[in-house]
Write the C-alpha cells for this entry.
Amino acid sequence: MGIISRAFQGRPRDHDEKLPPGQYLVHDFPVLSAGPTPRVPLDRWEFAIDTPEGEVHRWSWEEFQALPQETPTVDLHCVTKWSKFGTEWKGVSLDVLMEDVESAAEYALAYSYGGYTTNLPLEDLLDGKAWIVHEFDGEELAPAHGGPARLLVPHLYLWKSAKWVKGIRLLNDDWPGFWETAGYHNYGDPWREQRYQGD
Amino acid sequence: MDQLDYQDGNALAGPLSEIFTLDVTTAHGTCAGCGRRGVLAELRVYGPEPGLVARCPGCEEVVLTLVRGPKDAWLDLRGSVSLRIPIAE
C-alpha cells in the first residue's frame, strides 16, 4: 500500500477502474498521423467486404446510410498512452454489414483510403464489438479523425480502429497490418498492455 | 493552404543516431515505389507517435518506419531499395 491514499489523488475511483494500465486520461482528442490525410468525396466513397471464397459485398455512401444505425458511447485507449472516456459515435455495426457474408475465414484485414492496414481476428469485429462510424459527437466525422468513415473497435488500442476505412478483407490466415509489421503488438489489448511485439 | 502535417527528413537524424553511428540523413536512397533517388533528409516525416513514418516526396509511399519502444527500436526499411551511405576514408 502506498503512502498516498486514493482520496488524496482527487480522482474518482470509477475512473481508475476504467483506465487500463499505463494510460492517462485526456479531454481533448489528439490526432496522430502516419501520412497525408485522404479526402474522399462521398459520391466516390465505397465500403467493401470480401472473402477468401470470392464473395464481395459493396456499399455506396447512400446504401451505407440506409442501413440500421447505432449510437455507441465508448472509451478510447491509444497505444501512445492517452485514454478518452465516453466518446459518442454514430454508425453501422459490423454485425449488420456481415449479416449476408458467408465465409469460413477467421481473420480480418481492414484497409483504408491512403493505404493504411490493420489486422485483427474476425471475432473481434462481431457480437456488438465493432462499428463503421461516420459521426462523432453529433457532427459528421472530420477527415483528421478518419472521416468520412472509420472503423471503431474500442476494446483494442486505437490503431486498430482504422481511419478512412475502405474495406475489410476476410482471410484464412492472419496478415499483420501497417503498425503490426513495424513493431507494434499483433493483437493490442489495452487491459493486457499489449503495446509492442513481445509484450 | 493547409499547414504542413509533416517535417522534412532531418527529423530522422536524432532518432536514427541511436541505431547508426553515421548520420544517415545524408545517405542516398531509392524509393521502392517510384524509383526516385534522393537523400533521406528529403523524405516527409510523419509522427513521432505512434512511430516515425518517412514517405517519399515523389509518390508518398512509405520508405521507412521507426518505432521506439522502452527496450527496443524497430527500423523497417520496407520502401527502400537501397541506401548509399557516405563513409569517411
